[in-house]
């Protein structure tokens, strides 16, 4: 019986995709991962998250990423996009899990696998915490790469979230093709163009 932990990152960002990860851990290595410091990705430094990724991967039966583009987020809304990214990540796992532990309180629609939601699961379930780290590192790496093409938004440090420098860049330069135009901050600044 394989259980996957599932989490998403980038839900509140103004820039870039929403990314989810699904991780099936080897049960005999869960305690070891806790001892290594695996916890909610938001509680870890970028360096610590990077350090933990290979450890998580070596302690996993499988880990996979799913992501939904900005264009699709604007079409279906961020909640539906987050759930779609989670469904993608789970669908890529091999073997397919028999159960998914999903961070938060939203069930993933159209998933033919038993699922259980765990509010603040990234703080209490090792597999969900591992998924949060994998997703965060993957998304941050992508945003840092994109920051070189769009230097006016301070993306390397804010990772696409609405920091003062990011908002100032939006006001001065307007949104890029990777900004979520359905988000209020981007809509208001688009009207100024």
TrEMBL record:
The keyword RNA-binding does not apply. Its EC number is 3.1.26.4. GO terms for biological process: DNA replication, removal of RNA primer; mismatch repair. InterPro entries: RNase_HII, RNase_HII/HIII, RNase_HII/HIII_dom, RNaseH-like_sf, RNaseH_sf. Residues 1-193 form the RNase H type-2 domain. One of its GO terms (cellular component) is ribonuclease H2 complex. Keywords: Cytoplasm, Endonuclease, Hydrolase, Manganese, Metal-binding, Nuclease. A divalent metal cation binds at residues 7-8, 103. Belongs to the RNase HII family. This is Ribonuclease HII. It comes from Adonisia turfae CCMR0081.
């Amino acid at each position: 019986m394989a259980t996957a932990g599932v989490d998403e990152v980038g839900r509140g960002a103004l820039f870039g995709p929403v990314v989810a990860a699904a991780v099936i851990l080897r049960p005999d290595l869960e305690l070891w991962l806790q001892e290594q410091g695996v916890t909610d990705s938001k509680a870890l430094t970028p360096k610590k998250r990077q350090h933990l990724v290979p450890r998580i991967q070596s302690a996993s039966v499988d880990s996979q990423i799913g992501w939904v583009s900005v264009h699709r987020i604007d079409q279906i809304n961020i909640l539906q996009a987050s759930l779609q990214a989670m469904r993608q990540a789970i669908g890529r796992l091999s073997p397919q899990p028999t159960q998914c532990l999903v961070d938060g309180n939203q069930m993933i629609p159209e998933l033919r696998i038993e699922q259980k939601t765990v509010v603040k699961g990234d703080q209490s379930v090792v597999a969900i915490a591992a998924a949060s780290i994998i997703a965060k590192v993957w998304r941050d790496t992508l945003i840092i790469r994109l920051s070189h093409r769009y230097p006016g938004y301070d993306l390397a440090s804010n990772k696409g979230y609405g920091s003062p420098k990011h908002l100032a860049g939006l006001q001065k330069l307007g949104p890029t093709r990777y900004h979520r135009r359905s988000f209020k901050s981007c809509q208001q600044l688009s009207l100024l163009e």
